[in-house]
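Weekly modeling sync, notes
Attendees: AB, CL, MP (scribe)

Item 1: holo prediction request
CL wants a bound-state model with nicotinamide-adenine-dinucleotide before deciding which constructs to order. AB pointed out that an apo prediction alone won't tell us much about the pocket. Agreed to run with the ligand included and paste results into these notes for async review.

Input as submitted:
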Amino acid sequence: MREVKDITAMSVDERIAYAKANSPLTEEELQMIKEGSALTTDRADQMVENVIGVYFLPYSIAPGFVINGKEMIVPMVGEEPYVTKSTTSGARLAAANGGFTASTTGSFMIGQIQMLNIENPETARLKILEDKQRLIEAANKVDPVLVSFGGGCTDVEVRTIETMTGQMVIIHLIINVCDAMGAQAINAMVEAAAPIAEEITGGKTNLKVLSNYAIYRLARARVCIKKEDLGGEENVDKFVSAYAFAAADPFRAATNNKGVMNGMIPVVVATGNDTRAVESGVHSYAARNGRYSTITIWEKNNNGDLEGMIEVPMAVGTVGGTTKFHPAAQVSLKMMGITKADDLEKVIVSVGLAANLGVLYSLVTVGLHGDFESARK
Ligand code: NAD
């Protein structure tokens, strides 16, 4: 691992030169970011409704990330001071210890079909499962492009649930969305499959829409930091008790997870992805055991070193939505050398873990306010 420069004291132009020397970006692409000229009002007018202009945010870089052995500079777009600096210090600490090891479960998302007025819900459940191939075929017909990339609906799950308005049958289409975030694709597929479900059961469908609780699209990262690099085993113990606090107390878990999102969301924004989709997925997963808890775990290993990990749903794409349409999103992906959604997911969770590491290090040593004040001097 090459020594990573501290770019905090550099001028903007020096940082641009650093990014040019350490990423595949061209002078023109970097100038476009510097000038804030990536998104014109005309282009924005094609993205969303009722446009009258564009809104700018700081575009920063976090150098020194090592993820699965690959070194990279990570783009971060956000308004909060100290976040990039603290995330970078987490990344540097990780890199000195071999970096992050990240993995994913694959891009499988869930599309839901809500069925009402079913007289025999359990019989309906079995009938749908017996005939699930018809739903899969109807769904896959609407997105031949996705199917051509090896994606599409792969399976069907059915549950019956009790609600305040009575019993319902809920169908889940399991859809491989490959490199897309997938929302539009999934919504089209559940709408196409719903009439088949009505035909099979004789019931009526109501909502047909994706779920952001993407439990089959998880991304994971872990890191091991030597106790010497944390100022000794005493600080490792402080990390572990900070984790225990967050695991037991939703008040602390909420702030811990906000700190993790401080790292993740700026990368989601920089790559043109949907922040609300990521946030709803992460927070619903944080409450999966019936109580809101932390999404990062810190443990001490047999050597007295610190082991950290994160596992969350991560529905982001490198195609579709705004990712291909916003020129700055393309620059951000190119900066990291990423073309596949899977690789972007690994980066985002690693950055989240780095943010958590950086902030917890401050909290267990000098304190967040003390570190913030010294960073501003
Ligand atoms: P999309 O429809 O723009 O792009 C996906 C399509 O790209 C696929 O259906 C496929 O036909 C095509 N494609 C080409 N190459 C592909 C590849 N390698 N892998 C996968 N697909 C490929 O976008 P989307 O990803 O379906 O939807 C994302 C958008 O939906 C985002 O803008 C998001 O904000 C929005 N959205 C989100 C929600 C939600 O999260 N609840 C709801 C509605 C809309």
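Recorded for review: The chain has a mean pLDDT of 95.
Action items: CL to compare against the apo run; MP to circulate these notes.
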